[in-house]
Amino acid sequence: MTDFISGFATALHPLNLFYCLIGVVLGNIVGVLPGIGAIAAISILLPVTFYLEPTTAVIMLAGVYYGAEYGGSISSILLNLPGTASNAITTLDGYPLARRGEAGTALLTAQISSFAGGTLGIVAMVVFSPLIVAFSLSFGPAEYFATLLLGLVAGSTAVGNSPLRGVAMVCIGMLLGSIGLDLNSGIARYDTGFPNLLDGLSIVAVAMGLFGIPEVVANIRAAQRDEKPIPISAGAMFAAFRKLRSIVPSVLRGAGIGGFLGPLPGAGPTIASFLAYSVERSTSRNPQEFGTGRINGVAAPEAANNAAAQTAFIPTMTLGIPGTPTMAIILGALMIHGIAPGPQLVGEHPDLFWGLVASFWVGNVFLLLLNVPLIGVWARLVSVPRRFFFPVIVALVCTGVYGVSNSVFDIWAVLLMGVAGYVFRCFGFSPAPLLIGFVLGPMIEQYLRRALMISNGDYAYLFSSGTSIAIHCLTLFVLLWPIVRSYRSKARMRAEETS
Amino acid sequence: MKTLKDASGGLLIALTGLVFLIGARNFAVGDLRNIGPGFFPVALSVLAIAAGLLITTLDVIKKAHAQMSMDLRALACVAAAIIVYAALLERAGVLVTTVLAVFILALARRPLRPLETLLLGTGLSAFIWAAFVLGLGMPLSLFPDILQ
Predict the structure, then answer these.
(1) Which parts pass through the membrane (chain B) (predicted)?
(2) Cβ-Cβ contacts under 8 Å, B109 against chain A
(3) How many other CB atoms sit within 10 Å of the CB of residue A33?
(4) Which of A148, A255, A448, A480 is least surrounded by CB atoms within 10 angstroms?
(5) Shared-domain flag, residues B56 and B25
């Protein structure tokens, strides 16, 4: 707890406050705008972080991530169009409320629930992170290998529609990750004569190419509907404060579900919000009222996705395992600054870790202060024609990636990754597993080779501790679960057909 | 033709794996006890090829794989804009490159609004120059080199 309080000294440093504000404002904006996600915004901001202290950089990137959860609910409620995937469920009750003239109530519920969910998620992070760190400090290469493998398998099979496609993308990602100088042998792999590739393919180019460019290609020609957001004023929001007492249990349930699901690899805010909504509906005395504009149907998912957005940082920061591609990019930003992710991070860089956690809460306060009084501004942002944003994204991507090493080589790399990412996406391949493979692949190879060196090539060493065996069992479960699930749902469908 | 379309997603993966396998032909694989720098690339390439072929087989059997249609015009415009950046940014400066790229992107959709596009391109150049060159100190100039 004292660590957490001392973290505020870092978080309240004027420079960190400034970049935290930039992060959450940008996150809020991309959250409000449907079609532009937090991950695209974070990859665009990555080059900027080269010029910042690592703590400041991560504070800003994280702000974009959880800021988008706040902003996304605004377009869900006013436009019936989810700003991000994890706000999709909020449209079900938020939009009917707004149509009924209670937009202020819906928005205030969403913002207050987001804040409460985020705060509870931060509390969970403060409580559980030191425990996980204490447990994992005894990890050797075998346990690391097991944990990374779990992250890789979970990240590849849980995201997207088909586990097989996920595995294929992970392989491609790990192959791309193997480009560059091999640390053990000093051999250059796949450098194809380019000295720029000796340090490996830049994660900035890979992230921007995979997540920024295909999004632009897919949306640049989409006709924009004539969207008229429901008008809203700050006064209507302040007037709704007295209605909030009834949402307290929903918020607590939602935050609990979100806080639990957030750290699980591949789960994340979207699944958390859907689950929180269905729990809310099934525990309600009037389930038929859901979907017609109940504020509990807004409160639970909004608390859940914000809690999950915060607790997602637990495995990323304490174990070095990114559960989602966004977390993979944030890990990549740390590695760019020479900070090795893993259990030793909290001990070696306590100011970074606790400063980041404290900044989460500062950022959540910023978002609440920004969104409640300034709601009119965000509502107007929704009606700005989207055609203005795509050139801005392309220009920022190209100029930004140039700054990675002041070389146009990385712009060509963005071109290649962008075209490949778009084509893969058209064939139903999700880019998320590729990025997770790209980040985790080199680490897995490193730890496996280190483990084999320690044990003189004896593979039994990988299963020599209870911890590593338990983690491998979990990995096996994650790998086999989709198969069991699809078999069960097929069996159920067959049973329904015959009955 | 329809079958080819179903098959191509997995084939693309297999082809990518093949390219990496060929690229890894000179790396020492080592043996299982002492794995060399080529072990991971070769193993992953083979796994990718296998997964790709399996995906192809399943997609062809199922026939009904939902596929997004590829928007070649949008892809060409975005790719061309990136190429403009890669080819011109260092030589022609931020202003010319950005305005040109913004016009190419504007070609993706109709109708073309010349004045709006020009204003957007100029404003964007000014922002990029202020943020990246003045703010972050990137070694880029606003105008082409010949003017300086």
Answers:
(1) 7-27, 39-58, 94-112, 119-143
(2) 220-221, 387
(3) 23
(4) A480
(5) yes
Q: What is the DSSP letter of A408?
A: T
Q: What is the pLDDT of residue A187?
A: 83
Q: If pLDDT is split at 50, 70 and 90, which confidence band does A366 have?
A: very high
- Are the Cβ atoms of B41 and A167 closer than 8 angstroms? no
- In angstroms, the separation between the Cα of residue A410 and the nearest Cα of chain B is 8
- Rounded Cα gap, residues A220 and A217, in angstroms: 6
Helices (H) and strands (E) in chain B, counts: 4, 2
What is the C-alpha end-to-end distance of chain A, expressed in Å?
A: 58
How many helices and strands in chain A, by DSSP H and E? 23, 2
Q: What range defines the domain where residue B129 resides?
A: 72-147
Please calculate the CA angle A176-B139-B96 and round it to the nearest 5 degrees. 90
**CA distance linking residue A101 with residue A78, whole number of Å:** 11
Residues B99 and B136 placed together within one structural domain of the fold: yes
Select the residue from B4, B5, B8, B13 to test the A interface by mutation, using most A Cβ atoms within 10 A.
Answer: B13
CB contact under 8 A, B47 and A167: yes
Residue A349 tokens read as: 């860089």
- Reported confidence tier of residue A174, pLDDT bands at 50, 70, 90: very high
- B/e letters for A296-333, b = 16+ CB within 10 Å, e = fewer, are bbbbbbbbbbbbbbbbbbbbbbbbbbbbbbbbbbbbbb
Chain A residues closer than 8 Å to B85 by CB: 395, 398-399, 402, 408, 411
Please check whether residues B89 and B56 belong to one and the same domain. no
Q: Report if residue B116 sits inside a domain.
A: yes
B21 is a domain residue? yes
Q: How far is B24 from chain A (nearest CA, A)?
A: 7
Q: How confident is the model at residue B65 (pLDDT cuts 50, 70, 90)?
A: low
Last residue of a domain, one of B16, B38, B62: B62
The kind and range of the H/E element at A180 are: strand A180-181
Same domain, B105 and B49: no
CA distances in angstroms from A443 to A54, A116, B31, listed in the order given:
20, 36, 20
Domain ranges of chain A: 2-498
Residue A70 and residue A53: Cα distance in Å, rounded? 26
- For residues B57 and B81, membership in a common domain is answered with no
Is there a single domain that holds both residue B56 and residue B87? no
Can you tell me the ipTM of this complex?
Answer: 0.93
